[in-house]
Fold each of these.
Amino acid sequence: MLILHQNISMIPRNLIINAALKAGFDIVGVTPAVHIEDENFHFSKWLSAGCNATLSYLERNQEKRFDASKLVDGARSVVVCGVAYLSKFSRGYPTGCNTKIASYALAKDYHVVIKEMLSEVADELKAYAPNLRFRLFTDSAPLAEKSYARRAGLGWIGRNSLLVTPDYGSMLLLGEIVMDEAVDEYDTPMQSVGCGECRRCVDACPNGAIRDDRTIDARRCISCQTIEPMAGKECIPLDGWIFGCDSCQAVCPYNKKAPLCKNSRLNPLFDPLEFDAERWLSMSEEEFTEFASETPMTRAGLARIKENIIS
Ligand code: SF4
Ligand code: SF4
């Protein structure tokens, strides 16, 4: 369902959608830049329970995270764009593999790719509205992107806490444009949550990290524990993952039927099955840089990856 506004000075939603699709995004929605109070409340409770583990940056800027109007002066709208990254490595590794890598991390760092794509969208919006003021977000600044994505009608929050979309599942990278112009038609949230009785992600999580309220306990989450700083790291089984974890997404029926990524900017840059534990442990920094320097794996670094293998 769309909310319509009759004002020719507003940016047309169609212009935004077309610009996003042209830039290579698969889905896009637009929602007003309002404060999402109820989700802010639940997030505060999650923090109070210590579920953010060592991710202390999540405790900062709470007043902005759920209120996009505090991120850009006079913000009126949030454009939420998503691009699917599902590859042949996204739906699981061979049994016994002990060097598993989350599939998003095999491609060029999404912070770079999404920023480039959002810039292309913003260029088109600036051409239409030269005085437009905006900021681009790619998981690098405080913005509750899944919450705004849900409000923009892209999907629902799955039991595994991720945004799940009917056509592309959850293996999507999100980017947002917060801007000071209104839009002539806003999207509205989906009326239903598509998980139904399914609990496959909950059952697939090796460490029981998925909580009943559709949040994750980062202290028990491999994705967090293989990447974030070692200080305060919990000693949990890593189930063969050496960077990130896709277990709760690989089993999701929406990811099983989702199409493979068709955006060449997100193609895997190497084949993780060519690297067994022995190969990783004997790898030099030079070799790591040679094939992984553009990937998000540099965030953890080779030493940490080796540590994950032997822990
Ligand atoms: S990413 Fe892995 S460890 Fe974290 S909740 Fe999902 S299945 Fe569990
Ligand atoms: S696996 Fe099932 S419960 Fe989990 S997010 Fe997917 S549909 Fe929802």
Amino acid sequence: MTATIETRTVAPPVTTVRFHQVGKTFGQSTKAVVALDQVDLAVGPGEFVCLVGASGCGKTTLLNLVAGLDQPTSGRIELNSSRPAVVFQEAALMPWLTAAGNVELPLRMAGVGKAARRATAAELLELVRLAGLGDKRPHELSGGMRQRVALARALASTTDHTGAGAGKPSLLLMDEPFSALDAITRDVLQGELLRIWRATGTAILFVTHDVREAVRLGQRVVLLSSRPGRVVREWNVDGLTDGAEAAAVDEVNAALRTVISSHAA
Ligand SMILES: Nc1ncnc2c1ncn2[C@@H]1O[C@H](COP(=O)(O)OP(=O)(O)O)[C@@H](O)[C@H]1O
Ligand SMILES: [Mg+2]
């Protein structure tokens, strides 16, 4: 079984983001929580990497560091991309803006002119299969549709439209974006995400606690331990056959269980 997936320890030579011994501690002295410890991790341009780990192991913390929403306590993060964009579990759309207005927002903030904004938003809404729904407000859309809008907005925000960082690879950070959706919608959106990833060539760092989702979507799956969050192991799961994919899910799940039970003990 294990012969079907190979553990890769060598990081790709060209990176969109690279962690060098990154640590993150919240609070001080006896109340200190070591969320991340000596994390080394790299995502290459256009690469799809899934990060799995138990609840509370530091996955969101890690994404926040890449997004620049928080600073590491130790180590450093090397970023060679346009501004990373985050897609959260909840779409977090502006309720007073239409779907198109939400997608246009990061473009407006980047100083993109009205006509170009409209055109880009229309293109991105078509990419996420919401053509014709641009004038709907978030409350008029289903949960799955709202996540499609959030994805289009993230793509608008990570693609450099103003020239300063043009040509830099884009990076999408996704924090359990499908966990609040029903199983069928989740399955559809996973397929859509793969299609959009192939179409756009963006790098994706995708966080999930669902191993099946990670193995289906990612080219690599990285397992994070709990307290402190450390990279325990990673698997190359690119282009597996259905049988090999099922075996990989079992193997990663077994490793995750080991990590969780060693933490509890
Ligand atoms: N702002 C914060 N202040 C204090 N502790 C935090 C903060 N953010 C996260 N933590 C702690 O860091 C650990 C990792 O949290 P988090 O990154 O949210 O985990 P995950 O996303 O894997 O569920 C948890 O123990 C959590 O309680
Ligand atoms: Mg989280």
